[in-house]
Amino acid sequence: MADKIGLSDAVSAAPFPQDRTCPYQPPAGYAPLRSTGGPVHPVVLYDGTPAWVVTSYAAARELLWSGRLSADRTNDAFPIISPRMEGIKYQPQSFVGMDPPEHTRHRRMLLPEFSVRSVDAMRPVIGRIVDQYIDDMLAAGPPLDLVTAFSLPVPSRVICDVLGVGYADHDFFQRTSQDLVQAESPEQAIGAVMELSGYFEKMITEYLERPGDGMISRLAVEELAAGSVTRPELIMSVLMLLIGGHETTASMITLSVIALLDNPDQYAAFAAGTVDAKLAVEELLRYLSIADIAGTRVAATDIELGDYLIREDDPVIVVNSLANRDPETFPDPDALDLSRGSRAHIAFGFGQHQCLGQNLARAELEIALPALLRRLPDLRLAIDASQLRLRDGGTVQGVNELPVTWGQL
Amino acid sequence: MGGTGQGAEAREPVSLLHERCVGAGQCVLTAPAIFTQDDAGIVSLVQSALGADQLAAARAAAGFCPSRAIRVAGAGPG
Q1: Mutation site for B-interface testing, chosen from A69, A113, A115, A279 by largest number of B Cβ within 10 Å
Q2: What confidence score (pLDDT) does residue A171 get?
Q3: Rounded to two decimals, what is the model's pTM?
Q4: Cα(A326)–Cα(A313) distance, rounded to whole angstroms?
């Protein structure tokens, strides 16, 4: 093992994460990480911590399911990717930051509402929500901001339905979710967690007294009352579902529109229905890789990979825009090809932690995107693309505002 | 349904490691004629006797499974 390259031997380490300059393309500085042949490359985090980035699709998948990486966020060696996450480490963890068997126990309580069958049963509801927001946009007329008029409220309304949260509070959820995901300071992130926790605390108490519809009521009545989960644990699970259900799907809708506008033939095929919506959505998930930092982990053991030695407690980061654009797996990876057949992507991660809400996200995108393209003819940006303000590299990739117009050119 | 017990299931062409299942539903998306999710969201078999064409679909589903909870006779990782 002495001849293997370890993290301390790294002669050059790129900064990570980096910001995108095009909303749907990986940062230019990520391509060189692949050039050394991989399957891993050393990087340096904002606080100077060295870490490994996984550059190949095959290694990313293998590592994520192998059980050799830990997601335990209470581990001192667990890397902090951006300053906003500094305080989160000391908050109660959700299942996302746990290893088996705790992770398995918590995740299993949350499965029923997200099974393929449960989500399929929701499709008519999602269709009505999508139509309603498009009706509202048509009534208001262009130009308008697609993020606040459509991308954000559609998934927000859907996850509120699933959870059994009154949509009257959706402004509160949208603001606090955004505060958490895009916090500019650790204090702002913790503040958002506290606000949301207080809200769910109250809701759980109410549901225990008067059971109602939706997932929070079920979890309170079946799991909390039976003692299989504590109240703080339940609150963190619900909080994770709310955040996960909001920002990610919203970004997918928004960035899909931007990428499709730059690929008019693909746009036309999607709008005309000549490419299957399911296929198209999988390719957009691969191509956009909006949750670019797919897996933040710590090595649970020494791992030899090619010329490299990942030592126990080394931070390991799986980067979606690298794995999902690995030319070994996806030929001509930088081309958007809606009929490619790209479901093998790891846009939802891989292994035990693969996205719990992935089938809900698929259903939302399969319904929302074709409807949007079909009903808003000649949809286009109302500003120059160069004016779009992109989020930083350490969070869900996207834009907070997308002024669009449609109709007669 | 394929819930014929551990011993019997192990001899079937497709066997499930239920304790590994994380309910991602990838198998159902890949091969809905073979795999389903029970009310708790955990994988179960629609049928365990498979034709040759279905064996290929079962293998594909095993490949998509993020937690490697599906084993197919003659193929598939452990």
Answers
A1: A115
A2: 83
A3: 0.94
A4: 26
